Amino acid sequence: MTSPQIQPSTGAAYSRIHGVGGYRPVRVIPNSEVLNWIESSDEWIRSRSGITERRWAGPEESVAEMSVQAAGKAIAQAGIAPEQIGGVIVATVSHLKQTPAIATEIAQRLGCGTAPAFDISAACAGFGYGLSLADGMVRGGSAEYVLVIGVERLSDLTDTSDRSTAFIFGDGAGAAIVGPSDTPGIGKVIWGSDGSQKDVISQTQAWDTAFAKADAVNGTGEEVKWPALRMEGQSVFRWAVWEMAKVAQQALDAAGVTADQLGAFIPHQANMRITDAMIKALKLPATVPVARDIAETGNTSAASIPLAMERMLESGEARSGDLALIIGFGAGLVYAAAVVTLP
C-alpha cells in the first residue's frame, strides 16, 4: 500500500507591492520644543541627525488607529476589498500590551474576516521582515493578498531627559498590500541578526523590573523612570555604515540589479549621516532619488520605510513601476534588505 501524499500548497509565481499608505500624527514637535527638554541646539540636532521636526501621537492616535488609517489608504491604492486580504502582519515594538496581538484588532476593524493576523518584533527592520513573510505567503498559496504594517508610538518609550535619544524618535504608521504578480516584484530578502550586539539598542529595563521598583519605593517619594529606549549612537553608526552597505549590495546582487538601474533608494530613516555614508559606500549615482523623510518625521522604526515610500511616490520623486532598494536595520541587531517594484 502506498503512503498517502500531502497535497502541496501552491500560489502565485511572483509577488509585488500593490499599494502603500501612511499615517502621520497631527502633533508636530519641532526642534525648538525638544530644546525645552535637553541642553542642545537646533543646529546640533540637524547636523547629527538631519531632523528638523517629528510627529508624536495624541491620546486618540493609538497603534491600532494609526494602522487602520494607513492600511485603508494602501487597500484603496491596491484596488482590492478588505475581505480579499488573507493575512495581516503588524511590525511594531511599541504596542505595550503583551497579548492579544494588535494585528487581530486591526484585521477586525478593517473587515478582513477571519484572516490570520499576528505581530512581529524586529524593530527598524520590521517592515522588511513582514515583506519577506508576505512574499512567502502569497507565493506559497496561503494568501492571495497580505497586509503588512509597520507602526510605532515611540514617544511612549522616549526619555525626554536623555540628550542622546530625546530628539530622534517619532510616531506613525505605514502599510503595504502584497499580492500576486505576473513578473518578479520583490527580490530575495537579505535578512539576518547579530545577537552579540543586543545591548547596542535596547529598552532600559524590563516591565517587571520597573513595576518591582515602583512597588519597592511606593510612598517614599523616590522617582521610578518608565522604561525607555537607549542607544549607543557611535556603535550603531559604525555598524550601519560598514555592515549594512554590504547587505544592501547583497540585495542588489540577488535581484540582478545594479545601483544605476534603481529608481529610488529607501533606507530606514535612522539618521541622515548614515544614509549619506551608505550612498557613498554603494556608489549610488546622483540621479537616483533618495528618501530623506527623517527630516520631518524623525525615526519611526518599523514605519519609516513605508512612510518614506509613500512620500516619494506622492511627491513624484519616485514613480510607480520603478525599482527601489529598501533596507531596514535596528535593535537586535537585525536587518532586512530587498529590491522591490514600487506600486
TrEMBL record:
GO terms for biological process: fatty acid biosynthetic process. One of its GO terms (cellular component) is cytoplasm. The active site is at C124, H268, N299. GO terms for molecular function: 3-oxoacyl-[acyl-carrier-protein] synthase activity; beta-ketoacyl-acyl-carrier-protein synthase III activity. It is found in: Cytoplasm. Its main location: cytoplasm. Pathway: Lipid metabolism; fatty acid biosynthesis. It catalyses: malonyl-[ACP] + acetyl-CoA + H(+) = 3-oxobutanoyl-[ACP] + CO2 + CoA. The keyword Iron-sulfur does not apply. Coiled coil: none annotated. The last Arg residue of the ACP-binding site is essential for the weak association between ACP/AcpP and FabH. Homodimer. Catalyzes the condensation reaction of fatty acid synthesis by the addition to an acyl acceptor of two carbons from malonyl-ACP. Catalyzes the first condensation reaction which initiates fatty acid synthesis and may therefore play a role in governing the total rate of fatty acid production. Possesses both acetoacetyl-ACP synthase and acetyl transacylase activities. Its substrate specificity determines the biosynthesis of branched-chain and/or straight-chain of fatty acids. This is Beta-ketoacyl-[acyl-carrier-protein] synthase III. The lineage of its organism: Bacteria, Bacillati, Actinomycetota, Actinomycetes, Kitasatosporales.
